[in-house]
Amino acid sequence: MDNAPQAHGNAPADGSPMLLLENVHKSFGSLEVLSGVDLEVNKGEVVCVIGPSGSGKSTLLRCINLLEPPNKGTIYLEGQKITGRKARDGVDFVRRRVGMVFQQFNLFPHMTALQNVCIAQRTVLERSGEEAREKAHGLLERVGLSDKVNEYPDRLSGGQQQRVAIARALAMDPSVMLFDEVTSALDPELVKEVLDVVGELAEEGMTMVVVTHEMRFAADVGHRVAFMDGGTVLEFGTPGEVLGAPKHARTKRFLGLVLGE
Amino acid sequence: MDFIRDYYFDFTIMGDEFGRVFDGFVLTLQLSIVAGVLSLAWGLVLALVRQLPGKPLAPLRWLAIGYIDALRGIPMLLVLFLVSGFLSVAASPVGGEILPREIGIPTWFGMTSPFWYGVISLTLTYGAYMAEVYRAGIEAVPHGQMEAARSLGMSHGKAMRHVIVPQAVRKVIPPLLNDFIALMKDTSLVSVIGALEVVQVGNDIQNEQINGSGLVLGALFFLAITIPLARLVDYLIAKQQRRTQRSGGGDEDEPEESGPAPMPTGLAGA
Question: Is B251–A158 a contact, with Cβ atoms under 8 angstroms apart?
Fold first, then answer.
């Protein structure tokens, strides 16, 4: 922690990182997907996670918001330990602070865009209908969808659905946002509209962990880049370090394959 | 041939007995609707208990599974005898009057106790069938829906209530209607404990007049309800399939589309 690169913004009260992972392990049966991940994310920082399929990137995000509780290791959010014994309190604490956007959008198909953004505000944060709608309108406008407020998801393009999903997560006022390959399910021409929204969030100082295959995006928007392979973070540094001058042969090979196209 | 025509289609008898048969059919409808609504609710409760998460609640899940298996595995008529026998005896001096009379021999809302024994038995049995239908619907909702709801901070219960169950119910309306049709036909079993529903009335007429026209009239009453319902089921299934094919979002893994088409469970009774 002491040798952390200069953060973009201030860390939580006691100066610890917004998010800190120590030696996180996760197995499914005999398959070890995460074998000792260390990662730290400071307030206002954008960490992009890259790596080959099956390297554990998505599982890492799912561990951070406890959709998959880690088997071993410790995760701190805002300096609070969220794994281990008191995991049950941990879940509420975490889910109220961490927003997540999924590869498959996972919008609620029986609700309009507006209702998608309102439902958790109403049921979890217990905001009034008016307050929730006002917030939702503002967020949908921010992601460029003020004309789609009353549309159902099946009437929206993939890019539009994903932007609704981002608005839905933001409506909970998260302090960390997790993005899990949010453009992988999109047609190529729809990728930019989603990445632009994510980029704007980064500029506004949102703390984010972004799993992505978009190397350009990682280089342009990421403050730091983590390269994962075989369930561990192999390299962690500025985009210039990891993408520009990788130290590990595996990182070089991966980048060669991805950028060589 | 004339004998067959006169035995089943004696319009004079049908005209004379119309009121009696109609009254019987009204009772059939009352049984069907009251037991149908209660079965829908009881089935949903059973399905939700069966889906409760976590280890501490496992005994409740087993209880629900055991109940559903048991009630689906025994004839509704047997349930009817068990329920009516137990309740009426428990409220009588023979049973030590362990139940108050108004519960053991219920006459709520002006209906007879055989009516209520029938409602209870039909609900116990068809609740189990409908629980299985709800379960299929809940399991057909993509896993990502629960994850999205949980990631937004919803509890399991809130996610079920606002996200999963509304989608599940939409998927299973056709098979639930099929179960309702089966329930409606099984109301005729309640005649054996003395309910004057339409089949009993028709058979009384047959015994009195040595003529089956009253039963045929009763059959026509049934068909007037069940055939439109069956058509409605087909229409709803076709509509859902059209919706599934119209992949609006443009991506093959559209969450809503991955559920199986609702299964037509046929008109099988208990």
Answer: yes
